[in-house]
Amino acid sequence: MNRLILVAGLATALMVAATSGHAETAPGQATAATRPSGTSVAVLGEPARVEVAFVLDTTGSMTGLIDGAKRKIWAIADEIRKTQPNAEIRIGLVAYRDRGDAYVTDKTELSTDIHAVYGKLLQFQAQGGGDWPESVNEALSVAVNGLGWTKAPDTRRLIFLVGDAPPHMDYVQDIPFTDTLKIAEREGIVVDALQAGNAPDTALAWKTIAQLGHGRYVQIPQSGGVVSIPSPFDDEIIQLQLRLHRTIVPYGSKKQQSEVRSKAAMAAAAPASAASDMASYGVRAGSAAARKVVTGEGDLVADVIAKRAEAAKVAREDLPAELQALSKPELEATIAAKSAERDHLQSELAAVVAKRDAFVAAERAKQPAAKDGFDRVVEDLVREQVK
């Protein structure tokens, strides 16, 4: 695409931003816009729900950042949980590339099932691109209009746009991001823009998007700048997690049972730092999530604990094969034993996770350069904007 067309289109968007009362900021600075009077505002008080969508460029130049996101999605979810321990957390994804690639956008709906979101993120590989601008307009439109945001006023709604290339401004069928961000404003969705790398035309676009989205613009390293900190407690956490997985009893349809087993296998295969972040999130979410080991539906032990199900009333064909021959009293005793084992293991895990979290916090304080990484920036913005 002709760079002059791109710059001209972005300049027009900047003029729109200026006439809307959004001030331009100096390059390299995080920017925040003041919401004009008469428009939607962030919810005051404790939210019942926090919804976060990542709009992520998955073209070839984003390899390092995508790999970092895979390692740190649980740490980000854990930061949301720490900031709002009683809120329901829903996370979604919109991966985007460009026309002519394997896909233009690939969305994962907002969901409390963080394991499913993690699994989807693991599938993404950086490929495609090549002509520099990408389908940012379409990606933002899908994120704002297509993810099923909760309409209730006691909900915080955040979008993190992450990419290194500016939007195509020559696709006549596109909805311009300026129009999409008017809808985001009306719906109370804050849009932050994280620029990977330092391309000037991307900076121009991302600053405009952040201003119109009432969010912040932040520049992060092209690689993502994610730093994983190993701890002396990681191996113990992994072993406790593996023992916890043995307390899971998949039930329901064959598909649901398969999904539960897949989540447990995926968690077991996670690298040490991700596994520890996953454990930290699970411990913090323990009471709110009825002591779930994996998120989503299909674990009979979690459902019995939460009084969503009674073991004796589950149809034989909805039980895993190894439990179908048990009598009702035997099945209830098995579930009760697994529940007690889970309670013991999660208490033990909480103590180890607390030690690990303290160790990692101390090590992070020694690495000031890492504060510009993708995960640290998102965590900082979550603390600022969710509160």
From TrEMBL:
<dbReference type="InterPro" id="IPR036465">
    <property type="entry name" value="vWFA_dom_sf"/>
</dbReference>
<dbReference type="InterPro" id="IPR056861">
    <property type="entry name" value="HMCN1-like_VWA"/>
</dbReference>
<dbReference type="Pfam" id="PF25106">
    <property type="entry name" value="VWA_4"/>
</dbReference>
<keyword id="KW-0964">Secreted</keyword>
<dbReference type="GO" id="GO:0004674">
    <property type="term" value="F:protein serine/threonine kinase activity"/>
</dbReference>
<protein>
    <submittedName>
        <fullName>VWA domain-containing protein</fullName>
    </submittedName>
</protein>
<feature type="signal peptide">
    <location>
        <begin position="1"/>
        <end position="23"/>
    </location>
</feature>
<feature type="domain" description="VWFA">
    <location>
        <begin position="51"/>
        <end position="237"/>
    </location>
</feature>
<dbReference type="GO" id="GO:0005737">
    <property type="term" value="C:cytoplasm"/>
</dbReference>
<dbReference type="InterPro" id="IPR002035">
    <property type="entry name" value="VWF_A"/>
</dbReference>
<keyword id="KW-0732">Signal</keyword>
<dbReference type="InterPro" id="IPR052969">
    <property type="entry name" value="Thr-specific_kinase-like"/>
</dbReference>
